[in-house]
Write a structure and sequence with these properties.
The protein has helices at residues 16-30, 41-51, 54-61, 68-78, 123-134, 148-153, 170-182, 201-206, 218-221, 224-240, 250-262, 267-271, 275-286, 294-298, 316-324, 346-357, 372-380, 390-422, and strands spanning 80-82, 97-99, 102-104, 108-110, 138-140, 160-164, 188-191, 308-313, 329-332, 363-365, 385-388, 435-437. The protein starts with 15 loop residues before the first helix and ends with a strand. The chain has an 8-stranded parallel beta sheet with strand order 4-11-10-9-8-7-6-5. The chain contains 18 helices and 12 strands.
């Protein structure tokens, strides 16, 4: 087990979260203890890769095509610079923000990351508990291994939102929405940019699709409507007398064992049942709708009482259309560079979207956040809050739940210190003139 740091002391009004975090780490240093989770992203990524399997790393760290969109996301940050202001006389920062009618302690949320079971079998539970411990809302992934009800129970004092992938079965869409409401979700986040999986060579070169192994489909196998569809599929196959078309190989046997192990219920009962394999096949057929349209999205307001957030917006016209539908927020995101290679960087899209829709609508930012300074820059350029993805998964790979907590705490600490050193006093109103086009480029 990695050595845990001492519990951080509560920051004083003038100390702030950044200095409190520094002090805790330096106090441990006096005792000869170094952080078990690196405080810089480069070393965090290196350590996480070393701790992960090849398939896990390909899925979590990989991107679409040749990875140009992932590089664009980071290059976009390099095109801007922070201009600190001096002698501002401000010793206290307020990191809280108002978001969808709720006051959050920081402008950070945890993005939905699918198939986290590749990193840790209990990924969703570890992340949920870490989110509660740090006061950060967690957007449950639709592609998780743990049913949303169990993840919600793991963070009774925390806040969660629920991601929705729009299935080809409308009854399943309604069932997932209803379960999200019943679980206590505070918003519904509809992901628009994954109606099909993008071309992901890292996974393709390994022939690795976690869902085909039964990983990342726990929201489905726990859903009553999905189970109905699976039962109908099995009944139809029996009535037609269709024979299995799977060639028996060692790989096929391993896949069957994985499906059996991941499916709810007894392993031995599942092994004798057609349900685990039929569940995987059904999921692959219906999990997302390639024909998703604005007409589908127009029906949302009549299908849920939750605030509606549309994730995956990059074009100003799509942002305008979303707001015309009356959604509560949009997330500017290119899915972390995982869907379309050579896509516009999310930060560049944020600037154009905010310019197009004005200051009032709620805009969240996703894709490319690595540090607290990145969060600061995105807020200054128009985001109301930011979603954190890969970094917290890397923390999970390095040190489990504590690793997730440490990554979150480090990013918040750097955000606080960046605000302190630039004269920004409110995370919800960082002056835009503290960020300028990078004159060094």
């Amino acid at each position: 087990m990695p050595e845990q740091s001492s519990p951080p002391a509560e920051p004083t009004a003038t100390e702030g979260r950044g200095r409190a975090r520094q002090s805790a780490i330096y106090r441990d240093g006096v005792l000869g203890r170094q952080p078990s989770v690196p405080t810089d992203f480069t070393e965090l990524e290196r350590r996480a890769r070393r701790a992960s399997s090849a398939k896990a790393w390909a899925y979590v760290a990989g991107g679409a095509g040749e990875g140009q969109t992932m590089r664009n996301n980071r290059a976009a940050f390099d095109r801007w610079s922070i201009v600190p202001r001096m002698a501002h006389g401000e010793a206290v920062r307020d990191l809280s923000v108002d978001l969808l009618g709720t006051r959050l302690p920081t402008p950070l949320l945890l993005a939905p990351v699918g198939a986290g079971q590749l990193i840790d079998p209990d990924c969703d539970l570890h992340v949920a508990r870490a989110a509660e411990a740090t006061g950060v809302p967690y957007i449950f992934t639709n592609q998780g291994g743990t049913p949303m009800e169990q993840a919600a129970a793991a963070m009774p004092g925390g806040r969660h939102w629920m991601q929705l992938y729009w299935s080809t079965d409308e009854g399943l869409v309604d069932s997932l929405i209803g379960r999200a409401e019943a679980s206590g979700a505070q918003a519904l986040v509809v992901t628009l940019d994954t109606t099909l999986l993008g071309w992901r060579p890292q996974d393709l070169n390994l022939g690795s699709l976690p869902f085909a192994q039964g990983k990342g489909i726990g929201q489905y196998t726990s859903d009553p409507r999905f189970r109905e569809i699976v039962a109908e599929r099995i009944a139809a196959a029996k009535s037609s007398g269709a024979a299995s078309d799977v060639k028996v190989t060692l790989g096929a046997i391993r896949s069957l064992l994985s499906m059996t192990r991941e499916h709810p219920g007894s392993f031995w009962s599942n092994l004798r049942s057609p349900v685990p394999r039929a569940s995987v096949e059904t999921f692959l057929d219906i999990y997302s709708n390639p024909g998703l349209s604005w007409n589908h999205l127009e029906t949302l307001r009549g299908r849920t009482r939750l605030p509606i957030v549309l994730k995956g917006i990059l074009h100003p016209d799509d942002a305008r259309r979303a707001l015309e539908l009356g959604v509560d927020a949009i997330v500017v995101s290119n899915h972390g560079g995982r869907q379309v290679d050579r896509s516009i960087a999310s930060l560049d899209a944020l600037v154009s979207v905010r310019d197009a829709i004005g200051p009032e609508p709620t805009v969240l930012f996703d894709s490319g956040i690595r540090t607290g300074a990145d969060v600061f820059m995105a807020l200054a350029l128009g985001a109301d809050a930011c979603l954190l993805g890969r970094p917290y998964m890397y923390g999970l790979a390095v040190a489990g739940q504590q690793g997730v907590e440490d990554v979150i705490s480090n990013i918040i600490a750097e955000l606080d210190l960046t605000m302190a050193l630039t004269g920004a006093t409110h995370a919800g109103a960082i002056p835009g003139d503290l960020v300028v086009a990078n004159p060094s480029r």
